[in-house]
Specification:
Distance between the termini: 40 Å
CATH superfamily of the largest domain: NAD(P)-binding Rossmann-like Domain
Largest sheet: 7 strands, parallel
Radius of gyration: 19 Å
CATH architecture of the largest domain: 3-Layer(aba) Sandwich
CATH class of the largest domain: Alpha Beta
Number of helices: 9
Shape: globular
Number of strands: 13
Strand order of the largest sheet: 3-2-1-4-5-6-11
Order of helices and strands: EHEEHEHEHEEHEEEHEEHEHH
């Protein structure tokens, strides 16, 4: 019997790469999103469903296929739209859980976020439990509430959930609303582009390593009811990231300091990943330089 997976947000950057991996394993793949996939992320062997996960009725009417696994990347991308952000990232997740809680699925993977840790300093650990009042953004609060609801359902009904708290994932086919592709585009076009002063440190993970973490969680029962940090255990200053891209491409003009830092800017953000290493034998394999070169080579051909 072929494995059957439902990917919520399967038309996005992360959803695309997971779907591609599942297709390579000859799984049946269905995607749920609020719009059709962009041309660069359309896959032939996927059934694409247009469903708003904040609408319980549509979930009930259109998701009656018997799935083995569900992975939830769903959520509104523009976090400035606070109502839509809260509804999609929390209520949407809650609707999915309530629908699948009695469907006997084998695994439900929720994509969480490092911002759920609130004020906890890096390296952040899964045992660092924030209070919702210590989380700055509507997006962070929504993710935090989704995690809390999932763990509650695991404790009450052994709902087979796993929460993956992501840091910064990058790679080919990412939209131009994230740092790495923005900088790559500016350098490839050999133009001036605004940046911050670059003093912040962030954590970067190549998308193939992220997909491998998801697959390990899907297959391994020890992941049920668990929260895992997914990232590398190193932080890199953004100035170094930008200059490294500039060096590889050999062009581009970053305008340092044009983008002002937020008042609540976190200067150093990276995870402790010992838990996922120990329980699932997962750790990143692609170093940042190699991942960057692979990403740049994609955009060179597809800009």
């Amino acid at each position: 019997m072929k494995k059957k997976i439902l990917i919520i947000g399967g038309t996005g950057f992360l959803g695309y790469h997971l779907a591609k991996k599942c297709i390579s394993k000859n799984w049946i793949v269905h995607s749920v999103s609020t719009r059709k996939p962009k041309k660069i992320r359309k896959l032939n062997k996927i059934k694409y469903l247009i469903i708003d996960i904040t609408n319980k009725k549509k979930i009930k009417n259109y998701l009656n296929y018997k799935y083995d696994y569900v992975v939830n990347f769903g959520g509104y991308v523009n976090h400035q739209e606070k109502r839509k952000t809260y509804a999609s990232h929390y209520l949407g997740c809650k609707n999915l859980v309530d629908f699948f809680v009695n469907k006997k699925i084998k695994s439900f993977i929720q994509i969480g976020s490092c911002v759920e840790y609130g004020f906890f300093k890096s390296p952040q650990k899964e045992t660092d439990v924030s209070k919702i009042d210590n989380i700055r953004s509507t997006y962070g609060k929504a993710k935090f509430l989704a995690t809390r609801y999932l763990i509650k359902k695991y404790n009450e009904k052994k709902f087979p959930c796993t929460i993956l708290r992501l840091y910064l994932v990058y790679g080919p086919r990412q939209d131009f609303n994230r740092l790495v592709p923005i900088v790559i585009r500016g350098c490839l076009k050999n133009i001036k582009f605004p940046t911050s002063e670059g003093s912040q440190s962030r954590n970067f993970l190549f998308v193939d390593d992220f997909v491998e973490a998801v697959m390990k969680c899907i297959k391994n029962d020890v992941s049920r009811g668990q929260i895992f940090n997914v990232g590398s255990n190193k932080s890199i200053k953004l100035r170094k990231v930008i200059t490294q891209i500039q060096k590889v491409v050999k062009s581009g003009y970053p305008e340092w300091g044009k983008i002002k830092l937020r008042e609540d800017e976190i200067f150093n953000l990276y995870p402790n990943i010992q838990k996922i290493k120990k329980k699932l034998n997962w750790e990143p394999k692609v170093n940042f330089t190699n991942g960057l070169i692979r990403t740049i080579n994609y955009y060179k051909k597809n800009l």
